[in-house]
Write a structure and sequence with these properties.
This protein is α+β, with helices and mostly antiparallel strands. It is built from 6 helices and 19 strands.
Length: 275
């Protein structure tokens, strides 16, 4: 199965705060020609460096998905990658003047909106959509991911909570542009109040606030939720972003407790299986 490749029609710029660095960062997104892929360009470096968003360039998955070349990285790419995946954008240059994109409101909605506003343009070349023909399974500890054959991209996620203020959560969606926008895009990243101090000591979450994340306290979420099961919806958003690093496919992803590390392991396995 194939579809037309896509890029954006118009260049645009967006400025916001980085989730982990806490610093202002500006991205400028530009159209690219066919078969160019998704590229992040670190323009803050003396010698600007392009890093292609593919699974082989993943360098770490600690709290986020990070890609890099040589000693330079771009981290926390999963939210913008999820919007690119939902819109089926294949070729785009993302110039960035820091090592992570803006966190926006902690979800994928703003990225989706500004990409949509820039316009989506079909290109002459085609993109192959692979079909999963047999189960693919990865597991680490109590986390697991399996992909089963399906004519569409479907994701089921079970969020298992050990927190007294949170219930277990489950959600399942067929992933397309409409469902992503209505059910997934606005689900925000989340964190636990007891982790804040240690994260900041590690140089992480320095830009996190109630404006861009759901904070979970002893009795549960502190800020008002956008969905009763917002946390599991954000986990699905992360998977959508992380699998954009792998070849495009249709299949039913069944996830239990998975995070960026296991998502990355699955993407690597998918690349080996589908190539």
């Amino acid at each position: 199965m194939e579809r037309k490749q896509k890029t954006i029609k118009n260049e645009f710029t967006y400025t916001g705060i980085g989730l982990h660095t806490g610093k202002n960062v500006t991205i400028t997104c530009k159209p690219l020609g066919v078969n160019q892929g998704i590229k992040f360009k670190r323009i803050d470096l003396e010698d600007p460096l392009e890093i292609e968003a593919i699974i082989s360039n993943v360098t770490t998955t600690q709290r986020c998905t990070t890609i890099g070349v040589d000693k330079y990285d771009v981290n926390t790419i999963e939210h913008i990658m999820s919007a690119l995946n939902a819109l089926k954008i294949d070729n785009i240059l993302i110039e960035i003047d820091a090592d992570e994109p803006p966190v926006t409101d902690g979800s994928g909605k703003i990225f989706f909106d500004i990409l949509k506003e820039a316009g989506i343009e079909e290109q002459e070349a085609t993109k192959k959509i692979h079909k999963i023909k047999e189960p693919i399974y990865v597991k680490e500890g109590d986390q697991s991911l399996v992909v089963l054959p399906d004519d569409e991209l479907r994701i089921s996620y079970t969020f298992v909570s050990n927190h007294p203020g949170l219930h277990d959560q489950f959600a399942e969606f067929v992933i397309n542009e409409e469902t992503y926008y209505n059910e997934i895009a606005s689900a925000r990243t989340f964190g636990f109040d007891h982790e804040i101090e240690s994260l900041k000591e590690m140089g992480l979450a320095l830009g996190g606030s109630l404006e861009n994340a759901v904070l979970v306290g002893e009795d549960g979420p502190i800020n008002e939720l956008r969905f009763s099961n917002e946390l599991v919806r954000h986990k699905i958003l992360d998977i959508i972003g992380d699998i954009k690093l792998a070849p495009e496919f249709t299949g039913h992803i069944i996830a239990i407790r998975s995070g960026h590390k296991l998502n990355s392991i699955l993407s690597k396995k998918l690349k080996e299986y589908l190539n």
